[in-house]
Target: Metabolite/H+ symporter
Amino acid sequence: MFASLIGTTIEFFDFYIYATAAVLVFPVLFFPAGDPTSATLQSLATFALAFFARPVGSALFGHFGDRIGRKATLVAALLTMGISTVLIGLLPTYAQIGVMAPLLLALCRLGQGLGLGGEWGGAVLLATEHAPPGKRAWYGMFPQLGAPIGFFLATGTFLLLTAAMSDDSFFSWGWRVPFLASAVLVAVGLWVRLSIEETPAFRQVLAARSRVRLPMATVLLSHPRALLASTFASLATFVLFYLMTVFALSWGTSALGYTREQFLWLQMVAVLCFAATIPLAAVHADRTGRRRTMIIATVLIIAFGVFFAPLFVAGDMAGTLLFLVVGLGLMGITYGPLGTLLAEQFPAAVRYTGASLAFNLSGILGASLAPYIATWLAGRYGLASVGGYLVVAGILTLVALLAIPRDQAR
Model:
């Protein structure tokens, strides 16, 4: 459980420091000077690139995870993510090398996407395939906790840097510190990952000689319904999270007039609710079923979308904190059992590929362009349209969850 948690914490820390920098740093340093809104949208577009790389990472690392084992594949995924992140911290800016700067940034972002595409599914299997009877959602919750912990560490790092140095120093070199510091975290993660054993489920696959030659082809040809339902069952989770983090930070520090420090502190408090509701949801999921828990969470997300605009307003710190607490609290409820639910939809011989592919295809649909779409909708039609966007995602997820057979979700 600790090995799955430490790996996803590092991966999500790397991912979220990019998300924060995509709003606060990259529009200034990596794109031509001019319209600030245009630079932000271009920066968010590079943010989206990783989500299109993640299914490729799912196919690549999933193939080896189902062929040679979970352990070795997870080590390779962690290295891919870590090296890409450290390289971002070493990149020259637009002022130094011109258009090559955003191109190199995009290339490193693709590397991050490849790494995370292979990391998440393997970490979930590492946990759930070691779980005793009746505790699968509880074990599967540990890699999910890596998301709020990684987000908390990433946001906390930027807050410390903001408090410790001037804006000039921060934009000159301070923003590089979180990316370079990732090297230390990756070293710790590798040490932990190299000390674990292969999962019992994969050892059974080896013993039964039931490995498939092309896991991706088997998933697409033999399990298309499970793949489709699992992809859309994750949709609202992704849309909600990236609205509450990347979009909220961008809109709150621009249109609503909050300072960077104010909004990061609000998000730091709210992410604690995200972390707290993950284990609560896992306990409920082990008692009543993963599918039922996620249906309840999705209905609540749809209701939250209706009240999105009235809660997120300028000049009301308490109201904005409530908005973030409720949104990220709901995120924990839907995210806690998600990994276990997806893993249960596929047999062990193709589980790494199937669960990873579903999760990351959903990332393309629900997360890659969510900050971009939400920024465009809010600018043109107001925040109520962003809430409507979340409602539509919730309805699609609800339909997908209802299509998942009950006996596969318990």
In short: The chain has one domain: 2-408. The CA atoms of residues 23 and 250 lie 6 Å apart.
